[in-house]
Automatic annotation (TrEMBL):
It comes from Neogobius melanostomus. Belongs to the ETS family. GO terms for cellular component: nucleus. This is ETS domain-containing protein. The lineage of its organism: Eukaryota, Metazoa, Chordata, Craniata, Vertebrata. It is found in: Nucleus. GO terms for biological process: cell differentiation. InterPro entries: Ets_dom, ETS_fam, WH-like_DNA-bd_sf, WH_DNA-bd_sf. Keywords: DNA-binding, Nucleus, Transcription, Transcription regulation. The keyword Transcription regulation applies.
Length: 156
DNA sequence: TACGGAACTC
DNA sequence: GAGTTCCGTA
């Protein structure tokens, strides 16, 4: 881990506010991208789904298993990767996710969008802080941080 | 494998 | 609104 990552890991936990399910009051049901982040957060699923490559990029290493777990959560015993991936594709227009072309089973989160969904008042796109953070991301201060660590740093 | 329309459900 | 199911297309 890089220096900043180790500080963040030792001092703070990743804030739930970045993706808490309660913040979508309209639909009580768990959202797929919440579920994906949930799996990504737990080390026991690293053989199934894991952060890999660019910031926000993750690979579904075992599509059948991810689909099975998702089906379990939603009580949809006939869930499969074909159906799950259709749901992921609906996130493209919403700008929550996009596909990493050429890389099999690889998608990428748009984290500024993910935070905006839960905390629209932050309106990062129009804040000077967002611009400063962009500059920060361009630098080499935190080259090896996972997206959640990067998010954490943005709000330190 | 990956995409996106269409009908359907909750 | 957020998927689920099914399917034609590349």
């Amino acid at each position: 881990d890089c220096y900043l990552c180790s500080i963040v890991h030792s001092g703070f936990a990743f804030p739930d506010w970045a993706y808490k399910p309660e913040s979508s009051p309209g639909s009580r049901q768990i959202q797929l991208w919440h579920f994906i982040l949930e799996l990504l957060q737990k080390e026991e699923y690293q053989g199934v789904i894991a952060w890999q490559g660019d910031y926000g990029e993750f690979v579904i290493k075992d599509p059948d298993e991810v689909a099975r777990l998702w089906g379990l959560r939603k009580c949809k015993p006939h869930m499969n990767y074909d159906k799950l991936s259709r749901a992921l594709r609906y996130y493209y227009n919403k700008r929550i996710l996009h596909k990493t072309k050429g890389k099999r089973f690889t998608y990428k989160f748009n984290f500024s969008k993910v935070v905006l969904i839960n905390y629209p008042i932050l309106d990062m796109a129009n804040s000077p802080f967002f611009l400063a953070q962009n500059h920060f991301n361009g630098g080499s201060a935190a080259p090896d941080c996972s997206p959640e660590v990067r998010l954490q740093i943005q709000y330190m």
